[in-house]
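Notebook B, p. 112. Complex prediction, attempt 2.
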Amino acid sequence: MRHYLNPLDLSVDETYSVLRLAEEIRKDPAKYAHAAEGKKLATLFYEPSTRTRLSFEAAMLNLGGRTLGFPSANVSSAAKGESVEDTIRVISCYADIAAMRHPKEGAAAVAAEYSGIPLINAGDGGHQHPTQTLTDLVTILSLKGRLHDLTIGLCGDLKFGRTVHSLINAMSRYTGVRFIMISPEALKIPTYVIQDVLEPRNIPYEETTDLEAALPQLDILYMTRVQRERFASEEEYQRLKDSYILDAEKMKLAPEDMYVLHPLPRVNEITMEVDKDPRAKYFYQAQCGVYARMALILTLLGLADTKLEDREVWKRPAASQRIVNRFACRNPHCITTIEPQLDQVFVVTDPERQICRCLYCETKYDGN
Amino acid sequence: MRHYLNPLDLSVDETYSVLRLAEEIRKDPAKYAHAAEGKKLATLFYEPSTRTRLSFEAAMLNLGGRTLGFPSANVSSAAKGESVEDTIRVISCYADIAAMRHPKEGAAAVAAEYSGIPLINAGDGGHQHPTQTLTDLVTILSLKGRLHDLTIGLCGDLKFGRTVHSLINAMSRYTGVRFIMISPEALKIPTYVIQDVLEPRNIPYEETTDLEAALPQLDILYMTRVQRERFASEEEYQRLKDSYILDAEKMKLAPEDMYVLHPLPRVNEITMEVDKDPRAKYFYQAQCGVYARMALILTLLGLADTKLEDREVWKRPAASQRIVNRFACRNPHCITTIEPQLDQVFVVTDPERQICRCLYCETKYDGN
Amino acid sequence: MRHYLNPLDLSVDETYSVLRLAEEIRKDPAKYAHAAEGKKLATLFYEPSTRTRLSFEAAMLNLGGRTLGFPSANVSSAAKGESVEDTIRVISCYADIAAMRHPKEGAAAVAAEYSGIPLINAGDGGHQHPTQTLTDLVTILSLKGRLHDLTIGLCGDLKFGRTVHSLINAMSRYTGVRFIMISPEALKIPTYVIQDVLEPRNIPYEETTDLEAALPQLDILYMTRVQRERFASEEEYQRLKDSYILDAEKMKLAPEDMYVLHPLPRVNEITMEVDKDPRAKYFYQAQCGVYARMALILTLLGLADTKLEDREVWKRPAASQRIVNRFACRNPHCITTIEPQLDQVFVVTDPERQICRCLYCETKYDGN
């Protein structure tokens, strides 16, 4: 049994199989209308996220399967204090596959440790949201016909934007990919993304504050929200905000075959006039999200033609590799902060540099 | 593609086709058990309305289709500030047809402008609730065998009662219909309903405060809630409330073949003893609501034998007819009040009298 | 038409048929994958209970049926003040069978009075939760191969534990059953359970505060939550709490073939290390809950091979036996306290001892 907690939980080959299947589904959805008949998907949403939840439900219904679950914690048993571990063990009796959204980082990893069914991380706080990344890949592949040799512009809040970090990670696996990071100084991509992902793999990148200058070079422009409260000051926000709003004027600077993506919801960082531009593909992206999830569900259920390797990509480290209850995770958003009965588990992820990380939220232990 | 935002969005002939189909379904539901197989209905309820939502869901399930959606805004993305326009565009990727309930007037009209799938207005504030009206027509037709030549009593809060206004509008299309409006002075039918609907079409009507006097003349008695806070004073409420409570005693004054309808929920305006009277048809009406919605869904999906005319009854006025951002809608309940990015659009609806109305909530521009 | 409000609403024979069907389903679920096709279950949850709700939904989906409903009162029409009676009459138009959870005692009984479809009580306050009991019976039968000749340990909060009282009631129907009640003094089984159930049927029982001493004698250990606030004092809680926590050490005292059940959710009364013990069967019990509900749904819908007797086990007492509006139910949790329009109905349940009880919540009239 395999889970999908992180875009890298599927190997390059496996990811490619899922993307190809998504593309096949897109071309002939009727062929898959009964592919998951008799199967049930549980949607376990500890915080509301209608778009993601309904995308999963649409995907499962399109496959002829059924859904059950809860749309927010206040209509669930979480209020009674049941742990994520016990909930997923019970849900394993009710469904064949589950998608979990949780405000705490590492919640899906905890659930996967105890789950009897394949688990999909539908977002765990600011940590991971891998089906958004899969959606982005399906969309890019469908629009450009390839994932290699692309110049990808990432624009907006690159500091806190979880989907941007995941996309960089996922695209870094393909050759000839180049990133242009467009953001105000205060919202630049974090140093660790550069040091951990881009530099080790020699991936070319540029950082700029100038969207207009970057536009002519791009194959894909990936927009994200820039929230007012993230700026250093109100003055800076007022000065800069328009630079990161994509409008019809700026679109004139973009190539004919540059496509605009956005994980949605947008607020005002893309004006509504851009929606009519044939290069605006963020709603098409929502459609691709359904195909991506259909392909993923079929694959994890073992119903796709290409089978996943029979190994745990979600690597439960052996007991001998675990550092248990020696120190506590300092990440205030870690699932361990609200589930006191959980062991505090750290794992050495980089023996050379002596880095160890929380098993759940992957936060580095800082040595104190 | 057609939407259903207003009872008048279907022509008299089209309405009749839907009513006939509902009647067919009522007689032989098994025949339609797979009629919408493979189709998905999205129920987008920005405010809870269990009865309406479950009626839609039952309808879709009865047709072999599937449902997905959200039961209230606090479990939806609305909290994240996504606009109705963007939501419906995404939902158009997930479902084949949608039913939307929203507390703001005109919300469904905004959604219809951007929707890629047929949209049904399941209630937009105090503005319209057309499937309730369709339900009322199905029920009356099934009980009386006709929609023409009927005396219809409307009792209770006729001032604020949205369903009453809609029913008057819808029934005014049939010949020989006569209305008796029974209400306290403070809750009389608004003048504009008389001036805009009844008088232009020469439809006979009476206004009275006396339910008992009206009862012997009626073919249908349509009851509505009378809310205490709607009265001019507590004294008036105490003095009048019993006059508008239907009980077994008053039912003795009614003809054998007069039927009682109520859009539900009732509070105490019909006593529980009346429930046993065979003329009490408000629960049967709930059943008819499912048939009405089944017929409407099939028709809008193009799966009914009788096809809708291929035109937009939801008339998007051409750009040249729109008065854009010249003045703002003054209706404090209009959807434009919470969606600042929406254009303020007015349309001249009556060139002779120089009346123009908000494109969404249909409130008249008052010239100031 | 039959309802299931109380474990005793099914006769011993009928219960046995349901249990046997559940066992058949467990062994060959595929055989029942279409058994309720075309049928709809309404889940009416006036308070959230995710596990119970999803267990019902999983059961119905496993049978090829469909579900609709609401997960909590704040997303339902209850806020608009609709009565349970009117709601169930409307729901009877939408679904073929319903499961209702309500915080008030007797709510399901009120609903059953007016329901046009079979109604299952999914928990009415502290009163009854019969499908939990059915689940317990299915689990015990499946683990031990019998329901007779068993020593059952009940541990934890026996005073307020609704599931424990129901289980005693249900198991008291089988010969050779013996109970060992293990609890702190403050949380002992109520005297009326002993006087009303155990003594009249000469069922052997012991009361003890010592879990460790009881363990070697047990066939089944039924654990429940012990809530801190239920103890007489914080000191008592601190002194006693560990005695009622089941851990690996205590499990060494239990027989090889003693199984541990728990209605879930647990908080900390069973340590996570016990989960790995093959005798820990509380998650298996959750699985059995789905089979139990599948069997019950099929039986109430009349789709099981064995038909229920065509009588009302939910005995609506004839008008002549009802004491109407003579006195009010004093139970502050009774449904009548929030539905003022309901008649106050009492019924003489034991003419000899002159006991009469509220028709809905079954609270004794105390003569004042």
